[in-house]
Amino acid sequence: MDVWNFLVDNWDQSLYLTWEHIWIVGLSVLIATCIGVPLGIIITKHENLAKRVINTANIFMTIPSIALFGLMLPVLSTFGEGLGKVPAVIALVLYSQLPIIRNTYVAIHNVSNPVVNAARGMGMTNWQRLKEVEIPIAVPVILAGLRTAAVMNIGIAAIAAYIGAGGLGVYIQQGIDRVYEAMILSGALLVSVFAILVDALMSLLESAITPKGIKIQRKMGK
Amino acid sequence: MITYDKATKIFGAGAGAITALDNVSFTIEKGEVVVLLGPSGCGKTTTMRLTNRLENLSSGSITVDGRDIQSVDAVKLRQSMGYVIQEIGLFPNKTIAENIAVVPKLLGWSKADIEDRVEKLLQMVQLIPTDSYRDRYPAELSGGQQQRVGVARGLAADPEILLMDEPFGAIDPINREQIQDEFLRVQAKLKKTIAFVSHDIHEAIKMGDKIALFNEGQLIQYDTPEIILTQPKNKFVADFVGSDRALKVLGIMRVKEAMNKNPKNIVQGDTPAPEALKFMEEKNIRYALVVHRGKPTGYITRKDLKYEEGPVRDLSERFPTFVQDKTHLRVALSLMLMHDLILLCVVDENGDLQGTISYQNIQRSILDVYNDETEE
Asked: What is the pLDDT of residue B250?
């Protein structure tokens, strides 16, 4: 009940923090997609690069978020952006790379040999093959990667409140500082609800974008 | 016309290099089906993949209608040749119509032309009614149907040349026979120049105008199926075609080549029995064919005619089956065995008598074919 009262009393700030959270996560996933998907595609054509790129993305994933913020602080400070939204978005972009690159790489890589062979043998260029065949077939798995990245980023973005990025993590952080239980719970609740909603929305998007023929193939395969 | 001149392909380099194709020269004439045959790893698939530059030659040359394929852009070259593979490789995200339309679309055909073409091809490969296939997806079709689409896709832009890599290899035996027959019927009309990879001697005999038999990267023998079967060049060829090659010859020869075109033992259907009996006794024949208005209706023996008065057609035994002159000898022989007949009537489409074929005729024609070999 305390949580409810807290949210009703602070509805304007809750709304603002939620918006901030959406903004940080949305921007970071967008940037991460623009980098990760092309990179994932490129490494399918250059196998020797693939391992290195994925390993690098893996390393970022293993650094704890607080530590990453700390590591970036001296570097970004030289540009006057050591704290706030910029380091938060950069960190989230880095964290997103692994699921996005890996899923893109695996999805394109797993397009069956006969399909690729037929496409080449019929005289498609590499670009036509990507556009007409490989990407449409890979789309569900690529989107699954984006979904993982988005949900994960919602959680990590909450921690970014500690470097002054704003967002719903502010409730948690300040709640802890003030030992204000309703505030902590409100923040946690909103972050969770947000994560669940995004997960559901991405699932809908996945289903909407997956080509019909691929859905039928999956159904028949099961 | 495709000419291979000292075509050589070496994979890898140095100590680990593998010669997949070693100085192979032969020509596939325009309108011919040449089956590239041999055990796995013999170079047949490499030969095909070199033809549309999915692999590049190490040395030698391949020319298509006099033009060196190395001088043509690989993508353009591939678009100009139909390509059909065993695993089919239909694009699962595209409908049947879109799959067939791939190459015409790459070539920039108009929408209306593509639609017409898809309709025509679906009919050609017997996916009828076309409306119930056009907008479906590959996953909804059986393997045999998918390969029909694969063939239609290969033919889509009406290429002069078709490359087929074991196209019917993954289809169950019953459907395979049928789809092979259909394909031969289509090919008889289209007269494409076809390189057809197979590891199956039966398929090679059936589909090929010529067979190019490969082993360990070398072309061992290049001849018509008849000559491969009757005059194998060496032990490898003889072993590959099998010790039952005389029976396989029956699968290529047709009734026309063995039949008796002027059977003497014929009586007209309305001949009275006594007259027919007299005719048969004079000629000393045990049985005669009864022909009515040019159509064979049955056969009679002398025993059937004794003490009878009426026309012979009322007394004759009906033939259980007929063959046509384009029937394979293998089928004719099988029918004889099944129906316990020593002779079959050969009829045309209207059922008119063209001649007869007997065990003896078949035996003699086989002996004729093998004469060259036995004389050696």
From this structure: 85
DSSP string, B212-252: EEEETTEEEEEE-HHHHHHS-SSHHHHHHH-TTHHHHHHHH
Cβ distance of B85 and A137 shorter than 8 Å: no
Which of the residues B55, B93, B99, B133 would you substitute to probe the A interface, choosing the one with the greatest number of A C-beta atoms within 10 Å?
A: B93
Q: Give the separation between CA B46 and CA B216, rounded to whole angstroms.
A: 12
A95 and A156 Cβ atoms separated by less than 8 Å = yes
| pLDDT tens digit sequence for B211-246 | 999 999 999 999 999 889 888 899 999 999 887 877
Shared-domain flag, residues B282 and B213: no
Number of domains in chain B: 2
Output the domain CATH number for residue B151: 3.40.50.300
> What CA–CA distances, in Å, run from B150 to A215, B8, B34?
21, 29, 19
pTM of the predicted model, to two decimals? 0.79
- Selected for mutation to probe chain B from A113, A117, A122 (highest B CB count within 10 Å) is A122
Question: Tens of pLDDT along B317-352?
Answer: 888 889 998 898 888 998 998 888 888 999 998 888
Q: What is the ipTM of this complex?
A: 0.84
What's the whole-number average pLDDT of chain B? 90
The residue from B251, B271, B302 where one domain ends is: B251
| Residue type present at position B117 | R
pLDDT digits (tens, 9 = 90+) for B20-30: 999 999 999 99
Structure tokens that stand for B243 in this block: 């010790």
Whether residue B208 is predicted with pLDDT greater than 70 in this model: the reply is: yes
B226 and B78 within one domain: yes
Chain B residues 111-140 with a CB less than 8 Å from chain A = 137-140
Pick the CATH number of A2-221 from 3.40.309.10, 1.10.3720.10, 1.10.8.640, 3.30.70.640: 1.10.3720.10
**Domain limits for position B271:** 257-366
The Cα A36–Cα B74 span in angstroms is 31
pLDDT recorded at residue B26 = 96
CB contact under 8 A, A115 and B90: yes
Boundary residue ending a domain (B204, B222, B251)? B251
**B162: closest chain A residue by CA:** A122
Cβ within 8 Å, pair B102-A132: yes
C-alpha torsion sign, points A18, A24, A27, A30: negative
B79 in contact with chain A, both atoms CB, cutoff 8 A:
yes
The enclosing domain of B353 has a CATH number of 3.10.580.10
Same domain? B80 vs B119:
yes
